[in-house]
Inverse folding.
């Protein structure tokens, strides 16, 4: 049985790849297909993957603000809140824009540079 | 007893204002980053200790001629209803202030830890969905992003280094190695603990020059320490080039194609060192953000390397750091010291 973390990633990959909202049942079938056609151990998350597990994963993702549920339909249909690229851009923005209260969270290879420094660095590189 | 509190107050004042300003302007920390780091920690600890100690000793003055006797007297009042008439208004005020400051410092430290951990956990969660493990490099993730980005996210056994596609495309293998060694040094030397402690210190006392200057200095010193680790196995030119490429952001525009030819990294170091003075001046120039200043001092340190601080001087600074901690502790604890 795959860990919840792996399943979250697999579900997000499916939602990001597909354009339309999907139900937990559809997602379960797609996950089963993936693992059947994919490499590695067959049936890794296939037959024994219950729809309730997919629903658990979806509700975790919903709590994290990555997935939203369409209201008013039954069964519920889920879709990604924004695209993979948008999420990546947002995350990188967090990394690149230094706010005082975030300074201790991670250590960047190089902090921000002023425009003139960037120009000087470019010049140094170009000199060679 | 009175003199003890007076001396501690003077020490707290000196450590809160002139000393950090002088140290932050000094040139030598770039030549001995580890020693400077120890000194900053001693200044912060001794500063906090003497601030609290001065108030405590002043407040307890009527109760005994040393801290232990005073605390015993205070315990008698709090626990056994001994008469409190010996303490005047200002004594009680000082004691309350000491207790509040202690609680404030401890709570801020814990709160900062919780906040940092929450942000790191959130970041790790998103990374687990968005980034993929780098083949052949354990503990390294690659994220699909065009601009060159490299950072490490500390978290004990779950620490990761994150590289962007843009970075991998822009750097030569040796430059990439330098970046990875640099980031790994942050993780193995546990720089996250320093970042945490000094972020909390600043958060707790934001209006003290010492806390802001200390945080800026520590941020800059950990980068120098990590650079020094990278320089053990990669050349100076390689590291400078990696910094320049990552800092200039868009490598395609920044770097003419011919300069990316292999084998030129060594020559670059020479070229960079011979860079005109106005270029070096620009690095030290009026940089707005503290982080930009960090980059500037780092790059100028690599461009025109100075010999490390002589061993006796480094030893002297370390002894001084030890004394900074020992003196307030001794003033507090040794009974009858200075009458």
């Amino acid at each position: 049985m795959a860990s919840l973390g792996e399943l979250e990633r697999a579900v997000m990959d499916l939602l990001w790849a597909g354009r339309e909202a999907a139900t937990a049942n559809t997602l379960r079938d797609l996950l089963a297909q993936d693992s059947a056609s994919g490499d590695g151990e067959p049936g890794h998350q296939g037959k024994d993957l219950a729809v309730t597990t997919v629903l658990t994963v979806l509700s975790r993702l919903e709590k994290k603000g990555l997935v939203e549920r369409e209201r008013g339909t039954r069964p519920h249909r889920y879709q990604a809140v924004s695209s993979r690229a948008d999420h990546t851009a947002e995350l990188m923005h967090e990394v690149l824009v230094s706010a005082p209260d975030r300074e201790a969270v991670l250590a960047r290879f190089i902090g921000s540079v002023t425009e003139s420094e960037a120009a000087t660095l470019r010049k140094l590189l170009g000199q060679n | 007893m009175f003199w003890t509190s007076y001396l501690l107050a003077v020490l707290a004042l000196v450590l809160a204002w002139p000393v950090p300003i002088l140290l932050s302007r000094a040139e030598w920390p770039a030549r001995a980053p580890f020693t400077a780091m120890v000194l900053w920690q001693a200044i912060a600890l001794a500063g906090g200790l003497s601030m609290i100690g001065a108030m405590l000793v002043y407040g307890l003055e009527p109760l005994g001629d040393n801290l232990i006797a005073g605390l015993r007297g205070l315990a008698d009042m709090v626990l056994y209803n001994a008469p409190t008439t010996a303490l005047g208004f200002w004594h009680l005020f000082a004691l309350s202030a000491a207790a509040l400051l202690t609680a404030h410092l401890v709570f801020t430290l814990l709160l900062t830890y919780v906040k940092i951990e929450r942000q790191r956990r959130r970041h790790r969660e998103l990374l687990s969905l968005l980034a993929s493990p780098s083949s052949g490099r354990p503990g390294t993730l690659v994220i699909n992003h065009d601009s060159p980005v490299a950072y490490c996210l500390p978290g004990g056994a779950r620490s990761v280094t994150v590289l962007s596609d843009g970075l991998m495309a822009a750097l030569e293998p040796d430059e990439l190695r330098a970046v990875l060694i640099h980031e790994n040094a942050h993780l193995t030397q546990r720089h996250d603990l320093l970042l945490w402690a000094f972020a909390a210190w600043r958060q707790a006392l934001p209006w003290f020059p010492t806390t802001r200057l200390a945080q800026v200095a520590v941020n800059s010193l950990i980068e120098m320490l990590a650079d020094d680790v990278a320089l053990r196995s990669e050349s100076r030119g390689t590291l400078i080039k990696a910094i320049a490429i990552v800092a200039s952001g868009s490598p395609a525009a920044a770097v003419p194609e011919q300069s990316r030819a292999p084998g030129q990294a060594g020559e670059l170091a020479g070229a960079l060192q011979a860079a005109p003075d106005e270029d070096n001046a620009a690095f030290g120039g009026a940089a707005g953000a503290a982080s930009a200043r960090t980059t500037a001092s780092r790059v100028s340190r690599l461009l025109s390397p100075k010999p490390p601080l002589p061993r006796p001087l480094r030893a002297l600074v370390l002894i001084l750091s030890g004394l900074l901690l020992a003196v307030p502790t001794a003033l507090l604890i040794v009974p009858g010291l200075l009458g």
Summary: The longest strand of chain A covers residues 77-80. Chain A touches chain B at residues 5, 8-9, 12, 64, 66, 84-85, 87-89, 91-92, 94-96, 98, 101-114, 116-118, 120-128 (CB under 8 Å). Strands of chain A lie at 22-23, 67-69, 77-80, 107-108.
